[in-house]
Amino acid sequence: MALYENNSCPVCGKQFQPGDDIVTCPECGTPHHRACYRELGHCAHQALHGDGYAFTPADPPAEQKSSAPADDTHTAAPEQKKKCVACDAELDGDAVFCTHCGARQPGAGEKYRPPILQDTTPDPSQYPGTIEGEAAADVAAVVRTNTGYFLSRFRRNKKVGWNWAAFLFGPYYLFFRKMYKEGTAALAIRFAASLIVQGAYASQFAKLTDFMSTNYTALMQGKIQPDAALVEPLYPAVAIMMGVGLAIHLVIALFANRLYHRKVFTVLQTVDDRLQDGAIFRQAPMLPEQMRLTQDEMRRMYLSKMGGTSVFAPIMAFLILDMISGLLSSIL
Asked: How far is CA 240 from the centre of its chain?
């Protein structure tokens, strides 16, 4: 607080007082009352960030500078000390890093965040306000990646939108965003359509398969090509499958953001019940005793665990579908 003792909040204009809840802009360092910052939604000097603006604390009043007796110049003020936020070692008041454990020390107006939180959860001060009654920081904790895009879409709350990634990757995008039920349903529809088409054109597929198995070597060497009489009857089947696939991708692209909105807010609305019911969170026991998390930090880490993305899920979905297709082909 002493650093901003002679400064005022740029939003309400009131001078900072001891005990005020102060947050600083992560870009320029300007201090605000936390409530003012949340109400405004951004730094009061946001327009100046592009010009490289940096906050400079105001000098203390002249009478405060000269208040010390002139003949007391040999008496130095006691050096301020502080404790490391991670290991409780005693440090100089202006220390940036702990000389014992190396942990970074927060500056004025900052709140210490353990390294495990810095890697997995967003800084709450960067996401002020609420979205549909939920803290924007909690929403960002569930989304984790591409938070700016999704938070803006969630605030608009449109039922239909457009998501290019969902259009390109279709059902596998749903698995990537951990929407497993929706992704499974989309793959099941596409797989069922494939089975129906193959059943309707079973005789044509059988003739082409017999021809290719009988003349496999010659086909690989390029000596012969499949007869047009065998291939042309399958053109409608190929067109139907391409149409079904395109339709599925279009539907997913139009409703992916809405489906993800529902998933994120379902996680937010059930997280407290899950934690109270004893949901397991494996990261917590790995923290040393002096870095134990608060209840809010633990909750946000659990949100991050339930949300985020998964590269493993779409790969597994593809491999399982390919395995099922192979098994059915060998049986039928």
From this structure: 37
Structural domain boundaries in the chain = 1-56, 80-109, 164-281+290-331
Amino acid (one-letter) located at 2: A
Nearest to residue 271, comparing CAs of 139, 156, 153? 139
Task: Tell me phi and psi for residue 165, to 5 degrees.
Answer: -60, -40
pLDDT band at 236 (very low <50, low <70, confident <90, very high): very high
Distance CA 185, CA 308 (A): 21
Cβ(170)–Cβ(249) below 8 Å? yes
* pLDDT single digits (tens) 16-73: 888 788 888 777 778 888 888 888 888 888 878 777 777 777 766 655 545 545 444 4
Q: Do residues 178 and 310 make contact, with C-beta atoms less than 8 angstroms apart? A: yes
* Phi, psi of 272, rounded to the nearest 5 degrees: -65, -40
DSSP 8-state code for residue 68: S
pLDDT in tens, 132-149: 999 898 899 899 899 989
Are 194 and 186 a contacting pair, CB within 8 Å?
no
CA dihedral (227, 232, 237, 238) positive or negative: positive
Can you tell me the distance from the alpha carbon of 32 to that of 36, in angstroms, rounded to the nearest whole number?
Answer: 6
1-56 fold: Herpes Virus-1 (3.30.40)
Tell me: the pLDDT tens digits for 97-136? 566 655 556 654 445 555 545 545 666 677 888 999 998 9
Contact present, 11 and 32 (Cβ < 8 Å): yes
DSSP 250: H
